[in-house]
Amino acid sequence: MKKSFILYSFLIIFGNSVFAQKDSTQLKQEVEVVKAYKPSISDAFKINDIPQIQDATAKKPQFNYQITPQPVFTTFPTEPLQAAQMVGEPKAKQGKGLLKLGIGNYQTPYGEFFFNTKAGKKTDFGLHFKHLSSNGKVKLINTDRVDAPESNNLAEMFTKHYFRNSSLNTRLFFDRKGYTYYGYAGNFMTDEEKEMLIPHWQEKQAMSKGGLQLNLFSNEDRRSETNYMVNMNYQYLGSKTGQTEHFAQLGTNMGHDFDSFKGLLDASVTYLKTDSIFNNTSDAYGIKQQILLQIKPSILFEAETASLKAGINLFTMLDDDSDARLLITPNIYADWWPVEGVLALFAGADGYIKHNHYSVIAEENPFVDPYQDVENSEYQYILFGGIKGQLTKRLNYRFQVDYSSIKNQHFYVLNNFVKPENETELSSLNNTFDVQYDDLKQLTLRTELYYTASELVNFHLKGNFYSYDLNTLETAWHKPGFDLTLSGMIHPEGPFSFSTEIFVVGERKAPVVTINPLANSTTSVYTIEPVIDLNFGMEYQYSPKLSFFGRANNFAFQKYESWLGYAQQGFNLLIGLSYSF
C-alpha cells in the first residue's frame, strides 16, 4: 500500500508540467544559490553584510517561521568573509581568487581560500576551502574552567554551465564540525565527580557531511510562458558516535502564464534513512526510514498595485514505524500598495511539516543526545500580516504579526537520575539534551528597519517579540521573550572600513528533570540570563590586492550560555590579512 501511494504521488509531482512560472521570485531566489565568485579587496571583509529590505509589487516576502531559539550568538564561529558567490554575467571581468589568513586568542587559526575560473566558454568553475578552530578553555557559569575545543572544516566545488535555454548549477561539498560535550548544569564539580557522574563528559563529537547538489533551471526569457526549476540533492552524514544519515531529495518548481493568471506548482519527494539511533517508536536502537511528499499548487493574480496568490499545501509523511501522516494547509498571500513604494499592506496563511531529521536537530542543538530521534512538528497554520514600504529615500521598514499553531513542538531538557535507594544521591548527571513535546500557539511581533545615511553608512535593526501558549509544559524551555539585532556598516573615504553588531536576547528558562525509577520525577527550573553580545570589525585596505582585518567578538566581556550548562567564549579577537589575485 505504501509503495503504491509513493509511486502515485511521484507521478503527480512530476507529471503536472502544465503548471509554470514566468517570473517567480521564489524560483529566482533558488536559482541563484550557486554564483561565480568575483574577488575584490573592497568586498573581501564584509562581516555579516547587511541586506537591504527588498520591496516590490506582487512579490511574496520570505519569512522565517521557525521558532527555534534565535541566537544566543556564540562568539566561536567568527565569519570574517561570506561564502563565495558563484554567478554573474558569464562574460564579466573577474579575478581568480582570494586568500584569507588569520589568528586569534583561544588558540584560533583561521584560513579561507576561494578560486574561480572559466572552464570553457559556457562553464564557470569555483573552489572554496575554509578552516576555523579553537582550542582554549571556557569558564562555565558555575566558575568551572573546562576545555572546549571546536573546529569547522569546509570544502566546496561549484560549477555553472550555460545551455541555450537553461543553466545547470552543481555543488560538491564536504563539511566537518568537531566539538566536545564540555558543559554541565548545576554547582561546581571536581574532575573526579564529572568523570564518575556525567556519561558524555568531554566526549569528542564530530559531524561529517558530504554531498552533491544539482540545480537545473530555465533561463529568464520574457517571451516564454513557461518557467521551471528541478533540484536534486543527496547528502550523507556520519557522526563520531556512530550515527549515519542518508538524505535524498528531488524537487521541482514550475510556472505557466495563462491569459489572466499564473499557475504555479512547487513539489518534492524526500527520502531519509538514519541508523544507530534510539527509535522512539520501537524503543530500540536501530534504523529509521521516512519519506516526505510535498505538493503545493497555487494560482497567482497580479494587478498594477496588488497581487493575490491562492492555493493549498499537501504534505504526507510515510514512516516505516508508524501510520502515515497527512497535513493540508492554506497557501495564501496578498499584498496591496495604496501608496506605491511608500506603503504596502500584506497578509497570508501558510503551514508545513518540519522534518526534524538527525542532521537538522544536530545543527539546531549540537549538544543534544547523540542517539536522538526527535519527532516531526506540524505547523498546522501560520497566519501573518503587516505593512512594509519606504518612509523616506533612506529608510525602509517592515512591521509584521505572525500567529502559528504548532503540533508536537520539541523543547530541550536535561535529565538527571538518582539512586532508588537514596534519592539525594545522583547515579548520573546528563550533559546532553533530551526533549519534551507540547502543542504550541505562538504570537510573534516582528520589526525591521534599514537606514542608509549615505552610500558609505548604513544601519539595520531587527526585533522579534514572542508570546507562547502551551498545553501542558510550564514554559517554552530555552526560548526567549524577545531578540534584537542592530548592525552597522561604515565605509568612510580612505583605506579603512568598519562594521558593528549588537545582539540582545531575552531571559530564558531551562529545566533539569531528576528521575527516580521508583518515584515521581521532579523538575528544577534554571534561569538563563539575558544576552548582550557586542561585536566590532575593521579592515585596512593596504593596496588593491592586499588588506588587513580585525574582528572583536563579545567585547563587553559577558559570560553567557547558548544552552543550559554550555557557556560561550568571552572576549575573543581575530586578526589577519586578505590577498586577492
Textual characterization of the structure:
It contains 4 helices and 29 strands. The protein is globular, with a radius of gyration of 25 Å. With 581 residues, it is mostly beta strands. The N terminus is likely disordered. Helices cover 6% and strands 59% of the residues. The longest helix has 14 residues. It has a 22-stranded antiparallel barrel. Strands 4-5 form a two-stranded antiparallel sheet. It has a two-stranded antiparallel ribbon with strand order 27-28. The chain has a single domain, classed as Maltoporin, Chain A.
Provide key terms for this protein:
single chain, 581 residues, Maltoporin, Chain A, 22-stranded antiparallel beta barrel, two-stranded antiparallel sheet, 6% helix
Put the structure in a nutshell.
The protein has helices at 2-15, 25-31, 191-197, 358-364; strands at residues 97-104, 108-120, 123-134, 137-139, 145-147, 150-162, 166-180, 204-218, 226-239, 244-257, 262-279, 284-302, 306-319, 322-339, 343-354, 377-392, 395-419, 422-429, 434-454, 457-470, 482-490, 496-505, 508-515, 522-528, 531-541, 546-553, 561-563, 566-567, 572-580.
